[in-house]
Amino acid sequence: MTTAVLLAVVAWIAFVVIAPRLSRRLPPAAATVGLTAGSVVIAGSGVVMIAMLAAPWIAQLPEISELGPWSATKLRSGSPVPLAAAVTFAALVGVAVVRLAVTGWRRARAMAAVRRYCRHLPATDASLVVVDSQRPDAFATPLPSGRIVVTTGLLRALSAAERRALLAHERAHLEHHHAWWVLAADLAASANPLLRPSARAVRRAVERWADEEAAAAVGDRALVARTIARVALLITSRERVPAMAASGGDVPDRVRALLAAPPRRRLLPVLGMVAMLMLTLTAGIRVDHRTDTVFDRATVPEAGYGLRHGHR
């Protein structure tokens, strides 16, 4: 089991350190999917693995031991994990669950607030809402009932071509459900704080994804680069809402990417990310198998189980 745990830790650290860098060599859509899926797998398998390591000791608690056909004494003697480590693992699982619940609750409340705000705004078409405000701003709200919200102050500051690029960018956020990719990565990072760099990389990737979609829609990469730079300069402050905006992410990096050639498909970074995830899953399966073995060896024969629980 020690080997499996070490393999898992190596895979986690490798993903945290390497995956965000590898994602920069991928097209933004592939980077978004790969980083988000990888973060969810790392976070989920990590919590499950830690829970498995603590399970033989948790199952010894009188309230839990009464529920299963195992002997607490045999579990105590057969557990490969010291008591102090098991207590630490159980605490880590509890913290991860609490952090996940708190983050999910806060995001749900914020999304509900944005949805209530946009519900009463007039829409010029199925998704576009123009707000009469001098403050320059633009963002896309999450689906369902996703809207593109743009202020008149921003629209007046942009040329007609720049407005087309801006709306194409925001429309890409809606069409590809970018807010949900970001939310999944953020939830994974709340369960495992080591994944915060990956969550930031996902935010960057979805902005690059929308940039590339906008460039394809308007047929002018330089125009989209100029537009996001101009919007970023115009928007100097804005409230934190669960929305995707053209001014988000690393704007200078996005401008440089748009002024370069479109990103190419690369196989090697994808294989590297897949290898790290496969290593994680393999280690998790080995820990799960070892834990099952501990419980199997501690199982009380059916007759003894009945006598232990007062059955006749």
Helix-strand blueprint:
Elements (H helix, E strand, L loop, with lengths): L1 H22 L4 H31 L3 H4 L6 H7 L4 H37 L8 E4 L6 E3 L7 E4 H6 L2 H16 L2 H14 L4 H23 L2 H14 L16 H9 L7 H31 L4 H7 L4
Parallel strand pairs: 1-3
Antiparallel strand pairs: 2-3
Helix pairs in contact: 1-2, 1-9, 1-12, 2-5, 2-8, 2-9, 2-12, 5-8, 7-9, 7-10, 8-9, 9-10, 10-11
Protein described:
By secondary structure, this protein is mainly alpha-helical. It has one domain. It has helices spanning 2-23, 28-58, 62-65, 72-78, 83-119, 152-157, 160-175, 178-191, 196-218, 221-234, 251-259, 267-297, 302-308; strands at 128-131, 138-140, 148-151. A 3-stranded mixed beta sheet has the order 1-3-2. α5 (83-119) runs antiparallel to α8. 39% of the residues are buried. One of its GO terms (biological process) is proteolysis.
Main beta sheet:
3 strands, mixed
Number of strands: 3
Strand and helix order? HHHHHEEEHHHHHHHH
Query: Distance N terminus to C terminus?
Result: 39 Å
**Structural class by sheet pairing and helices:** mainly alpha
* Domain count: 1
How many DSSP H or I helices?
A: 13
Helix content: over 70%
Side-by-side strand order of the widest sheet:
1-3-2
Low-confidence stretches: 239-244
Q: Mind telling me the C-alpha Rg?
A: 25 Å
Q: What gross morphology would you assign?
A: elongated
Determine the strand fraction and express it as a percent band.
Answer: under 5%
Q: What is the mean pLDDT? A: 82
Keywords: Hydrolase, Membrane, Metal-binding, Metalloprotease, Protease, Transmembrane, Transmembrane helix, Zinc
GO molecular function, one term: metal ion binding
Protein name: Peptidase M48
Organism: Planosporangium mesophilum
